[in-house]
């Protein structure tokens, strides 16, 4: 007896096997996504177990676990976390603050847009990691040059997204507001700001990933502590398993931070459906 | 309506010279022209004379492009008058004011606010009421338009007709003296439109509410109006005024012979106006409203 399963939109779902039918689309997604990661890990372990390449070139997953254990047995790792965290936090916070404020202004006042847009587009077009050496010359290899690099890399997605959010406000809503005699300030507060929140959050989400690149590159250019510096050192000493561990730390940090912004986006986007 | 003013502010010179400004809204030879694409001057409306008493419901009826919306925008204070005199309660209109509220064809609701807070929006913008009072007032209006139970819903959860009710409630919340409506029911389905029209009529029977309603729908105009001003296009001029003497409420009126007689009269005027306009301008693209009957 064939039963037709309807999904949320009322469209008959393709018939799968019994166990597929029992899972919701969400569990199905999680199971499949995890399955691939597990498969890659297993293949990786098998390849290394065959001994095709020495561990110094390709360490096995269990070597990487060992490297993690070693890393977290010394207190240096916390100094690395602190250093990278500080660079990330300051750089990102500065980028968010400046990017949102400047984006709002540039989007709201067309003349400011005419004035700054070409310059911003020019800067946006430069691969900004290339500014690293310049920043080291100007600010030294301390915290400030690193924060500056993270800031420069992360500020543009926030700024450009925010200003385009303001510019794409529904003109009809603005007309309605003017009709009720609204002042510019009120329109800004009640329409422009909430209307551009989804754009701002989208910019922040991009900026998170970019900030991590900034942290890594900044530490490559010379640093005592930091996850990036740790990876760089390990690479120089052919501790390949530790390099892998560092990469994984970056990946997890990126995932976590993006998840936070995504969560915020969902909260503020409920009305978008 | 005599207006006793205590104000010592100098009045505009215009009204001093006008004897006939006892009307609530008074337009004399109002023209609006703007520069077209090739630096030629396009006259959107041409020497419109109109006077509306307080409490009247007046429909501006005409084909698309006849300048009826332009006239509404001038009354709203969005557009300046090119020449002529336009006064509201004896004062020249030069900007939007809290005494007028506009209802557009698109609902224009804020998607991130629930229905209740969309209705308070106008009150917040005009800044004339405390937050708490505004919420109470909005609740009353949702009751009036029959959406009380949807106060916490978001616009995307409502049908087009319900959204338009919220739009109307938002405009009414500021207690406007003059309600300006620009084809507000043009994009809802026919049944909903008829019930919205009846509701609007019920709301506007309050003697202090004056309404200026723009439409190209003859049936709608006859159903709603105390008086219909028929416009021709290019440039927009009032060719005829028809006073509709049908008793209110008009819920059952649509099939009565008096109603149909008005519809016929008005559509006749529109047709002959379109014909003469077409002849005088030598254009083939003459259009007249979608004469339904």
What's the helix and strand layout?
The complex is a heterodimer of chains A (273) and B (293).
Chain A: H1 18-22, H2 25-49, H3 61-73, H4 76-108, H5 110-125, H6 132-139, H7 143-167, H8 171-179, H9 184-220, H10 227-236, H11 240-268
Helix pairs in contact in A: 3-11, 4-5, 4-7, 4-9, 4-10, 6-7, 7-9, 9-10, 9-11, 10-11
Chain B: H1 13-16, E1 25-35, E2 41-52, E3 57-61, H2 68-76, E4 83-88, E5 91-92, E6 100-103, H3 115-126, H4 131-144, H5 160-173, E7 178-182, H6 190-203, E8 210-215, H7 218-224, E9 227-232, E10 237-243, H8 257-281
Parallel strand pairs in B: 3-8, 3-9, 6-7, 7-8
Antiparallel strand pairs in B: 1-2, 1-4, 4-5, 9-10
Helix pairs in contact in B: 3-4, 3-5, 4-5, 7-8
Commentary on this structure:
The complex is a heterodimer of chains A (273) and B (293). Chain A is mostly helical and 273 residues long. Chain A has 2 domains: 1-52; 69-268, MetI-like (MetI-like fold, Orthogonal Bundle). Chain A has 11 helices and no strands. In chain A, α3 (61-73) crosses α11 and α7 (143-167) runs antiparallel to α9 (184-220). The longest helix of chain A has 37 residues, at 184-220. Chain A is flat. Chain A starts with 17 loop residues before the first helix and ends in a 5-residue tail after the last helix. In chain B, strands 6-7-8-3-9-10 form a 6-stranded mixed beta sheet, with helices on both faces. In chain B, strands 2-1-4-5 form a 4-stranded antiparallel beta sheet, with helices on one face. The radius of gyration of chain B is 20 Å and the shape is globular. Chain B has helices at 13-16, 68-76, 115-126, 131-144, 160-173, 190-203, 218-224, 257-281; strands at 25-35, 41-52, 57-61, 83-88, 91-92, 100-103, 178-182, 210-215, 227-232, 237-243. Chain B has 2 domains: 54-78 and 90-99 and 177-293, Rossmann fold (3-Layer(aba) Sandwich); 109-175, no CATH class. Chain B contains 8 helices and 10 strands. With 293 residues, chain B is of the alpha/beta class. Helix content of chain B is 34%, strand content 22%. The interface between A and B is medium-sized, with 23 and 23 residues.
């Amino acid at each position: 007896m064939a039963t037709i399963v309807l999904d949320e939109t009322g469209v008959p779902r393709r018939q799968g096997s019994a166990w597929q039918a029992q899972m919701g689309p969400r569990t199905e997604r999680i199971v499949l996504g995890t399955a691939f990661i597990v498969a890659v890990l297993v293949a990786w372990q098998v390849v290394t177990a065959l001994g095709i390449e020495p561990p110094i070139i390709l360490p096995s997953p269990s070597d990487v676990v060992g490297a993690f254990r070693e890393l977290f047995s010394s207190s240096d790792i916390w100094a690395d976390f602190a250093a990278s965290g500080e660079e990330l936090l300051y750089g990102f916070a500065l980028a968010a603050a400046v990017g949102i404020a400047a984006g709002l202004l540039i989007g709201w006042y067309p003349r400011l847009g005419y004035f700054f847009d070409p310059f911003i587009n020019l800067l946006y077009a430069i691969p900004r990691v290339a500014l690293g050496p310049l920043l080291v010359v100007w600010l030294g290899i301390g915290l400030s040059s690193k924060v500056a690099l993270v800031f420069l890399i992360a500020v543009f997605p926030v700024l450009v997204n925010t200003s385009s959010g303001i510019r794409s406000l529904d003109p009809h809503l603005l007309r309605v507001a003017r009709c009720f005699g609204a002042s510019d300030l009120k329109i800004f507060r009640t329409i422009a700001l909430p209307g551009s929140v989804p754009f701002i959050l989208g910019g922040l989400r991009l900026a998170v990933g970019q900030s991590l690149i900034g942290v890594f590159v900044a530490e490559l250019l010379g640093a005592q502590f930091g996850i990036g510096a740790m990876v760089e050192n390990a690479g120089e000493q052919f501790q390949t398993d530790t390099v892998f561990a560092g990469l994984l730390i970056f990946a997890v940090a990126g995932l976590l931070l993006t998840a936070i912004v995504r969560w915020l986006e969902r909260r503020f986007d409920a009305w978008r459906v | 309506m005599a207006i006793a003013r205590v104000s010592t502010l100098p009045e505009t010179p215009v009204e001093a010279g006008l004897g006939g400004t006892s009307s609530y809204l008074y337009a004399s030879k109002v023209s609006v022209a703007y520069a077209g694409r090739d630096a030629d001057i396009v006259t959107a409306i041409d020497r419109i004379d109109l006077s509306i008493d307080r409490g009247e419901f007046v429909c501006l009826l005409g084909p698309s492009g006849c300048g009826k919306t332009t006239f509404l925008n001038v009354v709203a204070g969005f557009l300046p008058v090119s020449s002529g005199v336009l006064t509201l309660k004896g004062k020249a209109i030069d900007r939007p004011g809290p005494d007028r509220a506009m209802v557009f064809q698109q609902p224009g609701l804020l998607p991130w606010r629930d229905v209740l807070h969309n209705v308070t929006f106008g009150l917040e913008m005009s800044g004339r009421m405390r937050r708490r009072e505004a919420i109470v007032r909005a609740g009353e209006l949702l009751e009036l338009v029959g959406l009380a139970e949807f106060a916490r819903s978001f616009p995307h959860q409502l049908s087009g007709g319900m959204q338009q009710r919220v739009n109307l409630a938002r405009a009414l919340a500021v207690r406007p003296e003059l309600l300006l409506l620009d084809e507000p029911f043009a994009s809802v389905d026919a049944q909903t439109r008829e019930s919205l029209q009846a509701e609007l009529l019920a709301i506007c029977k309050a003697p202090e509410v004056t309404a200026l309603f723009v439409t190209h729908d003859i049936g709608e105009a006859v159903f709603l109006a105390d008086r219909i001003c028929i416009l021709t296009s290019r440039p927009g001029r009032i060719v005829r005024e028809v006073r509709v003497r049908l008793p209110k409420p008009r819920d059952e009126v649509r099939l009565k012979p008096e109603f149909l007689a008005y519809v016929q009269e008005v559509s006749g005027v529109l047709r002959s106006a379109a014909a003469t306009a077409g002849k005088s301008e030598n254009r083939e693209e003459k259009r007249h409203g979608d004469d339904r009957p």
